[in-house]
Amino acid sequence: MPGKPIRTALVTGNSSGLGLGLTRVLMREGAAVYGLSRRGCPEETAGDVSVDLAQYEAIAPAMAQLLDGVERLDLVVLNAGLLGQIQSMQEADIAELRQLMDVNVWANKPILDHLLAHGIEVGQIIAISSGASVSGNFGWSGYSISKAALNMFVQLYAHEFPDTHVHALAPGLVDTAMQEFISDAVDLERFPALKRLKEARGTDAMPDNESAAQQILDSLYRLRDAPSGRFVDLRDLS
Asked: Could you report the per-residue pLDDT of 157-183, keeping only the tens digit for each?
């Protein structure tokens, strides 16, 4: 990767999927990785705390435990998130929509607030967003809404991290359990915008979690050319 190597990183949602892929690639490249996730990371990292990110009051104590003695993080990846149900907005339950907002957006607030309050120096922050945050395709419902809110959340917090590169990043298609659910459990005839996801599985258009993680890490230097606070689609950087 161009630029300085990443020596310390915080990755949320690193028990599986893209977060686990990022953790593994970062560790192979020599980084000390700290993680927050509900189930815990299966890898032996520099630090790991299991916490339900839907429980707002538990996050600040978890951060204090996880980052005790840490003065700098070269990279923070706010990756933890929920897909929710693929459904029409009329069918969407308010309680589920609230949970999606809690995990996909508000769980990130005590994390960033801890970094600010404790003066932890941060080189770069990326929040994993999605093309669904701007496409508005039928069926994405609460996921689209929460990721759109995450984009603005990042834009606002960028003002409070003036010396840090802060972006919301759509990583493109990644072959994770979420894609398996979409392919196997969603009525693709009713939600035709999702057909391309099923068709992409097993092709270069949908890399596995570690390959996708490597693409993200390789893009970090170029990502810094975009104004801090912006939403960026990884595919636009290539």
From this structure: 999 999 999 999 999 888 777 766 666
Q: What are phi and psi of 108, to 5 degrees?
A: -75, -20
In the 8-state DSSP scheme, what is residue 6?
A: P
Model pLDDT for residues 28-66, shown as the tens digit of each residue: 999 999 999 999 999 999 999 999 999 999 999 999 999
Q: Helices (DSSP H) in the chain: which residue ranges?
A: 17-28, 56-66, 94-101, 108-117, 132-135, 141-158, 177-185, 195-200, 209-223
Check residue 11 and give left, alpha or beta (phi > 0: left; psi -120 to 50: alpha): beta
Question: How large is the angle between the packed helices 94-101 and 141-158, nearest 10 degrees?
Answer: 30
Q: Is 149 exposed, middle or buried (0-12, 13-18, 19+ CB in 10 A)?
A: middle
Distance CA 8, CA 26 (A): 9
Q: Tell me, rounded to whole angstroms, the distance of Cα 71 from its chain centroid.
A: 22
Distance of alpha carbon 213 from alpha carbon 218, whole angstroms: 9
> How is 92-135 classified by DSSP, letter by letter?
--HHHHHHHHIIIIITHHHHHHHHHHTT-EEEEEEEE--THHHH
Residues written for the chain: 238
Rounded Cα distance between 95 and 125, Å, is 29
